[in-house]
TrEMBL record, chains A, B, C, D:
Gene3D superfamilies: 1.10.287.70, Voltage-gated potassium channels. Chain C (1.20.120.350)
The protein's name in its UniProt record: Ion transporter
Domain of life according to the entry: Bacteria
Lipid bilayer topology: Multi-pass membrane protein
Matches recorded under PANTHER family: POTASSIUM VOLTAGE-GATED CHANNEL PROTEIN SHAB, VOLTAGE-GATED POTASSIUM CHANNEL
Any one GO biological process: action potential
Gene Ontology molecular function, alphabetical: voltage-gated potassium channel activity
Xref: SUPFAM superfamilies: Voltage-gated potassium channels
A cellular-component GO term for this protein: voltage-gated potassium channel complex
Transmembrane region(s): 29-47, 59-78, 90-120, 155-176, 183-202, 214-236
InterPro entries registered for this protein in UniProt: Ion_trans_dom, VG_K_chnl, Volt_channel_dom_sf
Subcellular location: Membrane
């Protein structure tokens, strides 16, 4: 009995290293197979929705999807079993995604059409960052995330303004175009305003009255200027992070350890230490 | 009589704190209810213009709008009564918006279709900035506004140039496309030019002659470069404001006079002067 | 005789000050009337092409245009007469535009439809910069022009690359879409490629085959990245010009007169002069 | 015999200088003729695909193309003969392009329609950079390439994220629009998502359900922010390269070690050291 338990313990340890680790050969191999299967499963779900393809290969598609789902289920169970604090994994970002990746397929046994939601598996592709573990990419990824986080405050303020402007312009266009050419309601006009301000411009709704076209021209030129703002915000932050790239040679101040000083500083701005 | 007056004074004081203030619990509660009602009223005006929805719930929509309008009217009157210099509020930005927010509904009693203009209430959403009073957001908002103000001069010059270019290209396209495919007049051609230069591209008007398509290609590539200019202007200003965020007392260094140091510096990075 | 000549001389002097100068009251007034007439004449040419408007007011439009043309002709002649070196004006940028502004109207007496080219008058609006003479705007305008000039080299290299890519992608799409859905020739496919790369996206030509749509997706994401390059080039230059704003305190080096040194330089990078 | 060989040697030398060199007059002339022929041949291949043009001038087009192809073939052979290590040229970037430029025409003798691929000749236009050899352009080109290379890491991470988002949004829209209005499969929906996120907006597929339009609005505003990221990345790198343009020997100042000085500085702006 004791031996069985210790054998089980060893199995748990080995599996843990393979599933969670990336340093051993087996661990690496497992990760690459996993990534391949995720890619394959996302492709399968996509192809299932292409009518002409699905009609020919429906059985094969479903069969393959079930195989992958069972593999993912086993992997999910092993991840729970081989970890010391399973609840931490269960409620982590990746834990929830791993569950959402297998759930739709089982639900499709009871409800029609839910297998489409298996596409949530594409989120599992985010694991790539864990798998690669390439210092260059992870540092780039950190820089990007820092820059985007730093600009979040300004972006929120900006989008709030844009939404108010959007409601106003949408209402004006609704009154001006007077129910013509797709401007059938204020929400539809707001939809048009967003399509125009973001310079997407489908053309499914477009003004026909001269006054409407004049206002539309104004909105487009406004969109020009408005488009510049988020770009400016993000660029300024990225430029800052790129100018003092903390990963490359982030020599912290020998006096106080801060890494935040202008690139051509002669003295530490935090503690006065001469460089 | 004296007592009634003093009671009225106390009521005025209390109401003033609730309506204008944001530091007391009651003041905060009032602000959040107000914000909710503004959002609701904007939504109501929008839904009224959706034909299928309006046919079903017209009576309910109008009823709710009147309730909100009466609430806004009471609030407007209280704001005037409880302030010592009412004319200052009346002619302030928010005072005018508050009036415009209730006027259309009363006018709709006499004129048909004016209730649509109640959508101007969305401008009242700008109060959010007063309500939140969150230091992070207000500083971000100030930085953004400063950057946009600083770039106004260049943007005006730029848009003036773009408009002249637009008139010229519009005229050329009118001659080249010769009344075909929507280029029926110079104003229409200018409208097309703006749609193209801003990369919106509805496709309601698009060139069909080879020469017209060639010029259009040129305009698009020009639009590429032109689009870069406002972005460059705004980005440069935001980068400056982000690099030396002036809101927190931008005192030049007493040692060397530089204004370029991190906001929380204790020593000048240029000359080592302790702050 | 002598007196007549001296009178003519005085007339010439006075007229010169009014037409060319902006410092006297009369000179300013003349400039504003001129600007108004330019705007009016551009508007007239535009309205003439709007069929519904032209049918009603054709006679009035033509009459007004002739009046403005005669005024412009007089102004043109006076400009030549009252200047000491007329050929300098005649072959200057503004001189040529002033001639082009009146020529189409006279040519319309002999050839049909040339009056449309009167729209070249819009170029005369560039005079605004001379008229305003506002230090803020002219300095902004100079900064912008400097930044755009400085980035010209990179922009030329960039557009050259983009054109080669455009030809290649256009050819590939022509082969892939195989004459379907508007891809009728390589020039047409190149037109589509430019429409897509610049994110204009009219939709008059759009891929229908799955492979075509896949390549189109790739082109769009490429356009994303490509769009970033001119913006980056212009932004970098504007940021530089904004960082050392030569207009504000453009103290040229007392040693060699250069104005090109980093904002926090202690010594002139050109001649070593200590600041 | 010896004389013939030495004559051949001299011919080889001379030809080498003309074909590969750009410093002699003959070499320059050859390069400009070559560039002209490349442009002409690309134009010919294009015009061949314009049905109306090809029907009239098919014989002339084919004749001219054969002449150019033979010229290119001769040039290709001479390039191989007059170089000491031919295999280096054969497998170089330009060597492969030069071969691909002549191959399609010969293949068109055996297979129908391959002559279209002659358009690969447009890649030969890249030779322009060798021909011009203008220091300004080549330094600009190097700066651009360095900036784009430096931002590659971040761009790869960014596009990877965008693709995952694209798959998710595409799937959601497929479910929401439920096979209406072109959202016939997940791949088609992903195509629409890319068209929208990149702000191209053809309008061949556009949402019709209110919920679909609401999600589309969200996607467009997201595209706004997302568009800012690559621009920010590239701008930050270009700004860095423009600020310290490394191409012209970026030797740090021997006095103070700074690398931040204008490219044509004679003295260090930081410490006054003469260069």
């Amino acid at each position: 009995m004791q031996r069985v338990k210790s054998q089980y313990q060893r199995f748990k340890q080995k599996t843990h290293i393979i599933i969670y680790g990336t340093s051993t050969k087996a661990g690496r191999l497992f990760d690459f197979i996993l990534l391949g299967l995720i890619l394959l499963s996302v492709a399968l779900v996509m192809m299932e929705t292409v009518a002409s393809f699905d009609q020919k290969y429906h059985a094969e598609l479903v069969f393959l999807e079930w195989i992958i789902t069972i593999f993912f289920t086993l992997e999910y169970l092993l991840r729970i079993l081989t970890i010391t604090k399973p609840y931490k994994y269960l409620f982590s970002f990746y834990g929830i995604i791993d569950l959402l990746a297998i759930l739709p397929m089982y639900l499709s046994l009871f409800f029609l059409g839910t297998s489409v939601f298996s596409v949530v598996r594409s989120l599992r592709l985010l694991r790539l960052f864990k798998i690669l573990n390439h210092p260059q990419f992870s540092s780039q990824s950190i820089q990007l995330r820092q820059a985007i986080n730093a600009s979040r405050g300004k972006i929120v303020v900006f989008i709030y303004f844009v939404l108010i402007i959007t409601i106003l312009i949408g209402s004006i266009m609704y009154v001006v175009e007077d129910n013509q050419s797709g401007f059938t309601s204020i929400p539809a006009s707001i939809y048009w305003t967003i399509v125009t301000l973001t310079t997407v411009g489908y053309g499914d709704i477009s003004p026909v009255t001269p006054l409407g076209q004049f206002i539309a021209s104004f909105v487009m030129i406004l969109g020009y200027g408005i488009l510049a703002v988020p770009t400016g915000i993000v660029t300024a932050e990225i430029a800052r992070k790129t100018a003092n790239p903390s990963p490359k040679c982030p020599l912290p101040c020998s006096g106080c350890g801060t890494e935040e000083y202008p690139p051509n500083a002669n003295y530490c701005p935090q503690c006065g230490q001469a460089f």
